[in-house]
Amino acid sequence: MLTLLLMVGLFFFIRASTKDRTEQMEFIATEPEESVFERLQNYFEQRAYKIIDIDGVNNAVTYEGFVPPSGFMAVFLSLLAALGFVCVGLVLALIYPPIGFGFLGICILAPAAGFFYWRRAGRLEKVILQITKATPVTENPAQLITVTAHRDELIQLKQVVPYKLNEA
User: Fold this and answer.
1) How is the beta sheet containing 50-55 ordered, strand by strand?
2) DSSP 69-121
3) Which of 46, 81, 111, 122 has the greatest number of beta carbons closer than 10 A?
4) Torsion-angle region of residue 59: left (phi > 0), alpha (psi -120 to 50) or beta?
5) Long-range contact list for 37-45, CB < 8 A, 24+ apart?
6) Contact status, residue 55 vs residue 61, Cβ threshold 8 Å
7) d(Cα 77, Cα 70) in Å, to the nearest integer?
8) Distance CA 132, CA 154 (A)
9) Considering the entire predicted model, what is its pTM?
10) Per-residue pLDDT reduced to its tens digit, 10-49
């Protein structure tokens, strides 16, 4: 029974590996808006994103780029599936001794997990960049930068840009 529960958990883990993880993050910049936009424009172009939409009313730019699947993750998921199938095969071999280790043949299904990930994980990702005034016009106006993107892209952006994360 425990092995079957673990297999159900493994199935949902493999399925969740392709789930969309779009989040939003806000930064505060003290540079002029043009400088902030130019820096972020260069960053996203280096990451192979292209502008697909400019919204002048909301001062937002939408980028799009293809994010390829990870070869390591495909192999890792296949190995996890193989390990899970070996466990199920061994349990079935103990329950039905006449068939014995013939149940280990289900391990040939393990590459299907990597194939599933490979087919579903590679997709077009959108990044929405919006820059607004965070403070009224003063000597040092601050810019509020709102970025909506995949969680991994936001983590990478946070490490690269010199802007302060908005905790409010």
Assistant:
1) 50-55, 60-67, 123-133, 143-150, 22-29, 164-165
2) PPHHHHHHHHHHHHHHHHHHHHHHHHH-TTTGGGGGGGGGGTHHHHHHHHHHH
3) 81
4) left
5) 37/61, 37/129, 37/131, 39/161, 40/129, 40/145, 40/161, 43/157, 43/160, 43/161, 44/127, 44/129
6) yes
7) 11
8) 19
9) 0.69
10) 888 888 877 878 889 898 888 888 888 888 889 888 888 9
Give residue for tokens 């970025």.
Answer: 147
Give 3-state DSSP helix, strand, coil % of the chain, rounded to 5. Answer: 50, 25, 25
Does an H or E element contain 155, and which? Answer: helix 151-160
Q: What are the distances in angstroms from CA 129 to CA 62, 83, 115, 119, 162? A: 6, 42, 33, 28, 16
Rg for the chain, CA atoms, rounded? 23
Give the pLDDT confidence of 77-120 residue by residue, as tens digits.
999 999 988 988 888 888 888 887 888 888 898 999 999 999 88
Please name the residue that has the structure tokens 């993107």. Answer: 149
